[in-house]
Amino acid sequence: RTTMKSLRFISAEAFVSNAEFARKSLGGVAHDLFPLLFKASYLLEQGEVIHDLVENWPLFDFNMGKLLGATLDYQEDLSHRTCSVCLESCLTGLRDYVLNQSSPYMKKLKVVDLTGIKDVEVQFCKCKKTMGRWGRTQLLSKLCSELLVYLQQAQCNPGTFEISINVLIDLFVTERNYELVLQALLKKCSCPLKICCVAFRSDNLTLQKFFYIIKLTDPSLLRKLEIVHNVHLEMEHLEILFNSIHFPQLMSLTLPARTFNVRRFTATDEQMLTNIGEKMGELTQLTELSMSFSILTGRIQKLLSPLKTPLKMLDVSNCSLNHADMAFLANSFHANHLEALDLSGHNIPELYPSTFFKLLSHCSSVLRSLTLEDCNIQDTQVNMLILGLSPCQKLQEFKFIGNPLSSQALKHLFAFLCELPMLKNVEFPVPRDCYPIGITYPIDDASLCRFDHQKYERVAEELNLILTQANREDVKASTPLFGSYDAAVQETNNELGAYLIKSFKETLEKFTTSFNKMS
């Protein structure tokens, strides 16, 4: 698919394609052409030109999402290209903007917004090397520290110290880049580049470090908070977090697995849960909540009823919800506003079929993403599922891997899915008849790949043919056996893997020590 380019954009490409000429000629370029030249340079991966454009940026703001998004001159959105060459040139150009004392342009830049960059699985850049959210966090923190060292050592123009640029970024902090980010945040007041954290994700971090760094990010600006893998946050820590820090703009909250476990609740824990619910009620902007892999049986109402704003996204996958929880969700004011819903890991057909379909009917007019993985949906329930999904005309994504459905049932379901006009992404299970007879669901990791791969390929071809014959080539259908793509996990999987091996080794050593003592 080719996107039309205006004559202006074609001229801009021609200008930046000769890097040496473009860099020499920047001094004579009109201010309003800088955004056009930036997008053309980004498309052609002209790192040196990108660097010089940013170093001499003549405007008040620099917004990556807007600069790379669809424009009249070139409709294609490049904000999902996290090209390492382009992004590194951009950030080093920003550092040199502060240091460059001979730029012909007045230094007007006040705000740099890096939050519009989108991390996706398939990259189209020629260098094939990406810089994800963790890498951007690392590089910006490093450049801020280097800048401070340079300013302290060198004889700088007094005007350099008056430069103050707010850099809006989605920070991603793990054990490996913690010290670097910490130093950048601690010295923020002295640095001309001020890190302004809009979204914060922490993986693989001790609680002590998490609590220390989250306070330094200026929580009053935070819109999104993700506390994910290997941050051992439990309910009492969450209560401390809400009691000690105020998040007036928080719109999205993701909590790690096992934050809640109602099976070992005491009366004190019940009171703590009530307090947390009340504190969440004070988050007046909150519209997205993810609490997967916690045990919340019978407590959803206590947590969600104090919320003043209806949720648009709710992930309660593998939370052991009971009928009362599902009934609350179906009848709550959230139901009519849910655009994304994940109920994976619940035996929907057996536990609460009618309540689930009531919930689905309430959110059908706005629902864009539905995830029902490992929900024990069988062939006999497919017609009912089709009936429930029929009103969901805005559905863009449907994920239902891990359900015991036959090839025939999948074909029947796909014939229906073709009729959903907005659908773009389907994640379907390996058909039950591709596995050995007697396989039990949910399938354990060891058996997950033990299916007839040739038969699966044939069925997948037939399902794609159903889409093609209905003129729905726009729908991507796949079977990600080990879960959907996660850019953040992909970028830091070596660190996470090393952490898991270390944890396993420590557990093994403790076990061996205990065993030796017993002997």
Describe this structure in words.
The chain has 519 residues and is of the alpha/beta class. Among the domains are: 7-131, no CATH class; 338-479, Leucine-rich repeat, LRR (right-handed beta-alpha superhelix). The chain is 42% helix and 10% strand. The chain is built from 19 helices and 13 strands. The protein has helices at residues 7-17, 19-25, 34-43, 47-55, 64-68, 84-99, 133-153, 178-186, 207-216, 235-244, 267-281, 300-304, 323-331, 348-351, 353-363, 382-389, 407-417, 453-469, 487-518; strands spanning 61-63, 111-113, 165-173, 193-202, 224-227, 252-254, 288-290, 313-315, 340-342, 369-371, 397-399, 425-427, 476-478. A 13-stranded parallel sheet has the order 1-2-3-4-5-6-7-8-9-10-11-12-13. The relative contact order is 0.06. The mean pLDDT is 93.
Question: What structural class is derived from the secondary structure elements?
Answer: alpha/beta
CATH class of the domain at 338-479: Alpha Beta
Largest sheet: 13 strands, parallel
Average pLDDT level: 93
Known CATH architecture of the domain at 338-479? Alpha-Beta Horseshoe
Task: Report low-confidence residues grouped into runs of 5 or more.
Answer: none
Radius of gyration: 26 Å
Percent helix: 40-55%
Could you name the CATH topology of the domain at 338-479?
Answer: Leucine-rich repeat, LRR (right-handed beta-alpha superhelix)
Secondary structure tally: strands: 13
Family: Belongs to the PRAME family. LRRC14 subfamily.
Keywords: Leucine-rich repeat, Repeat
Protein name: Leucine-rich repeat-containing protein 14B
GO cellular component, one term: cytoplasm
